[in-house]
Predict the structure.
Amino acid sequence: MVDVPNLEASLTDPWPAYFAGRGHPGVRRVGAGVEGVVYRLSAGLVAKVWSGRPPTGLDLTRQVYADIARHPLPFATPEILEVEDHGGVLVTYERELPGVSAEVSSPPADHERRLPAQHGAALLTVLRGLASVPGTEAMRRLSVQGDDRPLWQGHDRFPDALADLVARAAARHGAALAGLVPDLDAGVERTREALRSLPDAPVTTIHGDLVPPNIHVDATGRPVAVLDFGFFTTAGDPAFEAAVTAAVWDMYGPHAAEHTTELTQLFAHELGYAEATLETYQAAYALTTYDLFGTGEDDGHFRWCAAQLRRNTVFNA
């Protein structure tokens, strides 16, 4: 979720008037993301106007939120309080989450090759917290963005489910990706084999998109909320969460590659994950999300995934 202080949008946006008519004057648009637009209605309450429908249905999303919220965590997580359908548009009323976006609070300066220490500390707090929440049946029924079936369908192990997702995703637009990634087919098979070779691991809650806007911090940089579950939310190996977070925390900065290496090594050391496991999951993430926003060289995420694969040691073994 990103802040969108857009005056022109506010003048043409019908939703503040709609919410005012429902007894919420002074509505303010506070953010927008893949799922939709968020409005602050009052202290403690926000509304999300969805741009579509959760691929597995709102009831399942609401259950996943509830599964997470029942566990004591050092940060808040979303909770859906009410749901309505307004002319075919889904609106959810949710508890307001505290803090401000991590990237707004303390972005690293362009000249810094190392991330601020508080970023690593905050991410470790979030990763440890989510890894303490057991994966649930509702989470196993979720599909990830771009796919047409629950990730766990037909599988008992997360790495095996992910290996099959890699195959399905590579088949979608692999020809486009092959234009930027040499020897793509062989790399896909090496990644799938590496996934299938991973040992069993605990099955915990996976957010799957811990980018800076999705972590809110307080004035000291301490994480106080995690939001926007849904992009790659599932139940799975907590090492996958760590691997993806290391890769996506700084995707486009001037030292993004160095920051990915720095965080990968930090998480391996502090959380006890093998670096080869983290690299395997990073390759899988690139192979399963590369085409979600576009398949041309003008698409930043597509180019980013291709670059991840070109330098990934598991993919290129």
